[in-house]
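Async update (no meeting this week)

Hi team, since we skipped the sync, here's where things stand on the single-chain job. The sequence we agreed to prioritize is pasted below, unchanged from the tracker. I ran it this morning and attached the output directly underneath so nobody has to dig for it. Comments welcome in thread, and please keep replies under the output.
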Amino acid sequence: MGKILLVDDEPNIRLLYKELLNDEGYEVLEAETGKASFDILRREPIDLVVLDIKLRLESGLDVLQNLTKEFPSLPVILCSAYASFQDDYISWLAEAYIVKSSDTEELLKVIKKILNKKRKTKGNTPVTEAEMKQEEDLQIVSTNHLMKST
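Output:
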């Protein structure tokens, strides 16, 4: 289905997201730091990055900025416990912004939408009517009108 890189300094969050995404059929790699994420990205083909904004040793926004420079076509979903970061102009570089919660349904919907869009853009996998309907049903909600939502 796709290979996802989780970048979060909290082991419990990585475990929760990894189990959730594995159950959905995704292959998941983990990184605790921005440096570790770049090490993985330089040796593994990754379809999507889920990035925490508040990493222990560095700012996730700085990591995002560097990711978009080195891997401009790689979609990134920013995750944070704080909604206030979505107003930071650097966060607009991300494909989506999600506020962390115990309900992981929004994260799954956004991941599916982004990967479906990426797959269609590549043009190498047929898209079924059911998948098209599913994408219509999936919506990324953001209070920031400048943020990408398609």
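Quick observations from my side:
The helical segments are 11-23, 34-43, 60-70, 105-122, 129-137.
Strands lie at 3-7, 27-31, 48-52, 76-80, 96-99.
Reply here if anything looks off.
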